[in-house]
């Protein structure tokens, strides 16, 4: 995050670690994130949100897909049918949620694509990841 700020991103809120014992990082939002910045191309684990600006839907999808990662994504829209189309056909992620945050649910397969992994956990697809299938063919 600090490198992105040094490269021109803007700290909109948070970002200051309070004094005292413990390992706490406050919820943080940075804006003005562009390609070439670590906040654009690296996974930020923690309470940090990066804001990207896009001129239209096509550019927003291109920005979302311009990553080597693909664990989960969200599409936020008033038109849920259109959001479903975007999530299913255009957004590159192992899981994509419409008007909801990314989360795992034991009823659904969960896992990433690209550098965020392969295979699935949870759900019926997930249990198959732990099964060795044996084929036996008998000819008479």
Can you tell me about this structure?
- This protein has 140 residues and is of the alpha/beta class.
- The protein has 2 domains: 1-53, no CATH class; 64-140, no CATH class.
- It is built from 5 helices and 5 strands.
- The protein has helices at 2-6, 38-41, 57-65, 80-90, 123-128, and strands at 10-13, 28-31, 48-50, 72-75, 95-98.
- The strands form 2 sheets. Strands 1-2-3 form a 3-stranded mixed β-sheet, with no helix packed on it. A two-stranded parallel sheet has the order 4-5.
- The chain is extended, with a radius of gyration of 19 Å.
- The termini are far apart.
Strand and helix map with partners:
Elements: H1 2-6, E1 10-13, E2 28-31, H2 38-41, E3 48-50, H3 57-65, E4 72-75, H4 80-90, E5 95-98, H5 123-128
Parallel strand pairs: 2-3, 4-5
Antiparallel strand pairs: 1-2
Shape: extended
Outline the low-pLDDT stretches. none
The string of secondary-structure elements, in order, is HEEHEHEHEH
Major beta sheet summary = 3 strands, mixed
Q: What is the number of E strands? A: 5
Work out the count of structural domains. 2
Strand portion: 5-15%
Radius of gyration: 19 Å
Number of H/I helices: 5
Give the rounded overall mean pLDDT: 88
Structural class, by secondary structure, is alpha/beta
Distance between the termini: 67 Å
The share of residues in helices is: 25-40%
For the largest sheet, list the strands in their spatial order.
Answer: 1-2-3
